[in-house]
Structure formats: structure tokens, C-alpha cells
Amino acid sequence: MVAQDDSFIEGYAAAILDREFALHEVHLEVKDGIVMLQAWDLQGRDKDKVVAALSRIKGVRDVRVTEAPSAPDRIRVTGEGWQVFPQERIVPPLLADPRTPQFSLAYQRYTRSDFPKLRDVGAISLGEEFNVLQYGSSGVGRFNLGIEPAIFAIFNLDALSHDLVNADYRIGLPLEYRRGPLEVKLTTFHQSSHLGDEFLLDTPTQRINLSYEGVDLKSAVELGDFRFYAGGSHLVDRDPSNLKPWAAQQGAEWISTATFISDALAPLVAVDVQEREETRWRASVSVRAGVELVNPEETRRRIQFLLEFYRGYDLNGQFYRERANWLGFGLHVSF
Questions:
Q1: What is the pTM of this model?
Q2: How would DSSP label each residue in 169-211?
């Protein structure tokens, strides 16, 4: 429940203030994930550092330091009622999912590539979740409707002109729900795949006109520094028509509350596992580990520097029946 989640945040925040800043008696209040403090309680302390430390607590949506006490009925909680084009993201992106809509640039060294034969690959993604409408209530939780456009492309860096090999175009309409540590996300989506012209000229292949629409459902729970999720998807319209429709996905993430560089840098590790009916439910595993740089006052905006490992079936376009293993590193940006 939200109240229970707020109680957990309040206890965690009090422990941080006591242990890290020797603040033993403060006017601390938490409501719907918003931490409220009084400025005079922080005298002699670095306010920005206090805000940064408390912002790292899982479930905290905002940290507010007021200059004077506010009457309870005048406290404005941004999560209540309807909001148009809200900035806050109520369901965070999946850190290790190679198909998370975000802006990223990565180098991948393929140790196995059945087809096409690749070794040094540049991978980019251009995507983001744009919130359209959000509703929040302390009694029922929060809902969010958004749009997720994305492009995923890979380039053969060993080719003379760094040929585009494949580009996947995806558009999703996510409906999200969150209450306390529980998250649910239902996405209807369309995806189509296209091979690069230079790749087709250099590599004779039988092109498949791959496109489909589908529905994806995932749920997640946050437990302290950890986040666990699971779900599945079903393709409702597909070309080719013999493409099997079902897929499953599970994963776990850890973002440390132990931070560095003025509490703006934190280590993280994430694992994502996917199984598809088309490849006889054999698992494809993605692992990412590194650090993220975040502005505590703009928590949606963050940069991640991640090492990557992937072993399984190719996620790029019509190569979905081929095996692909790689090691790499990438830069990932959220706005």
C-alpha cells in the first residue's frame, strides 16, 4: 500500500540523515513518495548533498526543502489528480533489455554471428517514452498513458562504408500503473524491419518482409535497491504469417544507494532473459553493468556507461532465427 511504502521511505530517510549527516531530530514528512524537510533543520549541512542522498531512495519521487512550515492542507502533491504531459516516469525503463526505447550508442564485438557474418558492430537506438496523460490518487495509485517511438539499427564497422545492416522501427502505446513498489505496464506496439541497401548489395540474401503488431504485458516490484520483473508478449498480426506469436521475459536490476562524486554517480547491474516460441523457448540472456550519472533534481535525466554481454538469438530484424553472441560497451541517455 502507498502508506506502507511512505513509512518505509520515511524510516530509510531518517536512517540516512542520522548516519550520514548526524541529523538526529528533523521535521521529516513523506507523502506519496515526496520527502519534505524544513530548511532550518539542515543548518550547517550541504543541502544539495542531503537532497541527492534522499533522492536515491527507491520510491522517492521528489525531495522538497521548505523555508517555513506549511499547513498540511496547503501541501501540494503533484501526483494527485490529472496531469497533461507530466515529466515524471512512473515505470522506469528496463536497464538490460536491448529493445528498451532510449537514446544509446554502443560498440559490440561479436564472438558468434551465424548470419550475417559480423565482427565489429556499431549499434544505435533512438527512442524515448513521451508521457501524454497521468492520473494519481493516494487511494488507487497512479496511471500513465504515453507514446514510445524508437529506432534500433546496427552497422557493420568492418565494411568499407560502415554499412547499415538492419534497422527496426517501433512505435508503442504504453499504459502504466504504479502503487507503492508494484509496477504494471501494458503496451500495444507495431514494429517493422528493413535491411540496409549496401548490405543487400554485398550480401546475397532472401529478404523477409518482417512486420507485426502485438501486445506486451510486464509487471515489476521494487525491493530496496533491487527491482524484479516478468511478463510476456503476443503478436496479433504478423508477416510472415507463420511467425510464432508468443514470447516471455524476466529480469532483475540493482542500482546501489552507495554513491560517489557528490552522490551523483552510482554503480548498477542488470540481467534480462527472453524466450520466444519461434526459437523453441531457448533463453537469450543480456547482462549490463556499469555506472549512472544523475542530477538528483532532474531524476529522469541520466547518463549510463555500461559494459554489455549478450548470448542468444539475434534481435535484429529478420535474423531472429540466427544465433548471436557479443561483448561491448555503450552510452545510454534518458531525457
A1: 0.77
A2: EEEEEEEEEEETTEEEEEEEEEEEEEE-HHHHHHS-------E
